[in-house]
Amino acid sequence: MRNWQDYRVLILGAARQGIALARYLDSQGAQVILNDERSAETLISVREELTDLPIKLVFGSHPMNLLDHIDLICPSGGVPLTIPIIVEAKKRAIPLSNDSQVFLDAVPCKVIGITGSAGKTTTTTLVGCIAQNAGSQVWVGGNIGNPLIADIEKMEADDLVVMELSSFQLELMTRSPQIAALLNITPNHLDRHGSMENYSAAKARILDFQQIDDIVVLGRDDPGSWAFEQYARGNCITFGVTCPPHGQIGTYLRGDWIALWDGKTSQDLFPRSLISLRGEHNLLNVLAACAIAFAAGIPSEAMRNGIDGFESVAHRLEFVRSWGGADWYNDSVATAPERAMAAIRSFKEPLVLLAGGRDKDLP
């Protein structure tokens, strides 16, 4: 764990990640500057929230002189690494980090990290529910919910963290969680990463820094995820629809049952009918969650209880209401073609699609 006393840190972005990181670093004795290009009038609530702390606030632009005498710069996830102040920081060889890296460096308990182009929020939430049913003190967050760094002082060695990680967070990280799940990789965020190669490399950083006693969980039916099996340093547990090939351990669909192959025997975990989530993509999310839970040593009874009655996560095929003779669903998180197609395939009923968005430079 790093000693932050008198460390000079510039945080870019005064949203929830940046504010939580600023509070934590200040509590550890760091000298913190919180900078955002939005106007002071827009961010008046941030100033009021931090008024009791000796954090320097600079709003309205990213002046280059903020880099003078800085030891570390921490961009929030939504801040592109191509903006001039970060480009200049790289020229000056100022190290870059973020709240996720700071958290992983300091957290006292085991961490499950989950990433993927689709399904990571649902899978993360599922794993959290399963772990809670096992009686664990579970902290769920990262790219969803509250920033985990805000609760790190409450965490103890026997707790479990389930952490969703986006490519924006991963591209700066130099530490991997003890259990790292890479669900799938399909084209997304190419407007940020520039190429599919860069995007895949950012995702793969979730396992790049694992040790030999760590575990990676991969989707064996997804070519993008499975391509990184050869780079696994520790044990590899898989998930997919069909039974794992010889030599693999993982979850699969055995008839109408979610099952686990442990390398020697097959165990039925629970019937597929227990899953209330729509679609084959959500079947894969459940298979992934159970594989991750197995990697964490969570018993099968907790898997069954965690899945039973689990409802959809907000904005992910979320049932809104029945109105005008139709059922209305919110799937606004589906901002890539693969995700939208997965949702469409989930319905056998006649379907009307309302869609919109912006160009993400996808093929």
What this model shows, in words?
By secondary structure, this protein is α/β, with parallel strands linked by helices. The protein has two domains: 8-97, 3-Layer(aba) Sandwich (Rossmann fold); 100-307, Mur-like, catalytic domain (UDP-N-acetylmuramoyl-L-alanine:D-glutamate ligase), CATH 3.40.1190. It has helices at 16-27, 44-49, 84-91, 99-106, 120-133, 167-170, 190-193, 196-208, 223-226, 280-295, 300-307, 337-344; strands at 8-12, 31-36, 56-59, 72-75, 110-115, 138-142, 160-164, 179-182, 215-219, 235-239, 249-254, 257-261, 266-271, 318-323, 326-330. The protein has a nine-stranded mixed sheet, sandwiched between helices. A four-stranded parallel sheet has the order 3-2-1-4, with helices on one face. A two-stranded antiparallel sheet has the order 14-15. α5 crosses α10 (280-295) and α5 packs across α11 (300-307). It starts with 7 loop residues before the first strand and ends in a 19-residue tail after the last helix. The relative contact order is 0.10.
Q: CATH superfamily of the largest domain, please? A: Mur-like, catalytic domain
Q: What is the CATH fold-level name of the largest domain?
A: UDP-N-acetylmuramoyl-L-alanine:D-glutamate ligase
Structural class: alpha/beta
* Counted beta strands: 15
Q: Summarize the amount of helix as a percent range.
A: 25-40%
CATH class descriptor of the largest domain: Alpha Beta
The global form is: globular
Strand proportion, as a percent range, falls in: 15-25%
For the record, give the distance between the C-alpha atoms at the N and C termini, rounded to a whole number.
42 Å
Rounded average pLDDT: 91
How many strands, which pairing sense, and closed or not: the largest β-sheet?
9 strands, mixed
CATH architectural name of the largest domain:
3-Layer(aba) Sandwich
Computed CA radius of gyration, to the nearest angstrom: 21 Å
Spell out the helices and strands N to C.
EHEHEEHHEHEEHEHHEHEEEEHHEEH
Helix count? 12
What number of structural domains do the residues give?
A: 2
